[in-house]
Structure prediction request, 285 residues.
Amino acid sequence: MSFTLPGFDLPAFITTTLSEDLGIGLPGGGRDVTSESVIPADARFAGVMDSREAITVAGLPLAAAFFCHLDPACEIEMLVQDGQSVTPGTALMRLAGNARALLTAERNALNTVQHLSGIATMTRAYVEAMHGHATLLDTRKTIPGLRALEKYATRMGGATNYRMGLWDAVLIKDNHVAVAGGVGPAVARAKTAGVERIICEVDRIDQIEPAIVAGATQILLDNMTPTMLAEAVALVAGRAATEARGGVRLDNIGAVAASGVDYVSVGRLMQSAPAADIGLDFELV
Prediction:
């Protein structure tokens, strides 16, 4: 079962996560003491992973990877695909295999699917609230070590990935501006350095023109009301892409997106998404 993401090492993720749970390298660690004590070594389980609420699914191939890592002979049937929205009670995956192995992998498999599906579900809600206006972007406000997975989850929810890291675009923020001596000088320095994609944050309308004249390719309009955003879009007049960020919530993103901006970025997609309610019930076979 193949799952690949640029910059993401699936085998290392599985091994590291299971090692943490099993206490590899710790005194007395290296085993699932409960399963070893309670479950016969040759017992077999069959189970169904299902949603307990309406969700957008993300992370099922990762869950399968956990189970297959501990029981390479386990049988897995995917019943839905990542990115699919499902109703409460929908069966997501059927699996069967060695009972000890499946129980040892269960919590990490569920944690991953619950976290990523929670992000995808929140993202889908934001996309739908935009009513077709603008493009929803995620941010770098991710849990350290999980960026590739969390940004995958936002894509499953319908967002577009913003910068993957510090390396793929210039994003000039207020602290950069303060050190550089102004919006214009900061953008000009990035332009001189030969960077093609230059995003410049502004929090005042009068900063827009200097940023565009200096060569900014995208103007990040920080913490502006929909009225201010519409004014800013009119001033930019298509000379650069426009992005709204700051104070964007589910109850106001519709108005923000309708202001005419090209993009709306939301940090809370990964910062604040609650885990999806997903369960897994086993029975002996």
Notes: The two ends are 24 Å apart (CA to CA). The first strand starts at residue 44 and ends at 51. The first helix runs from residue 10 to 22.
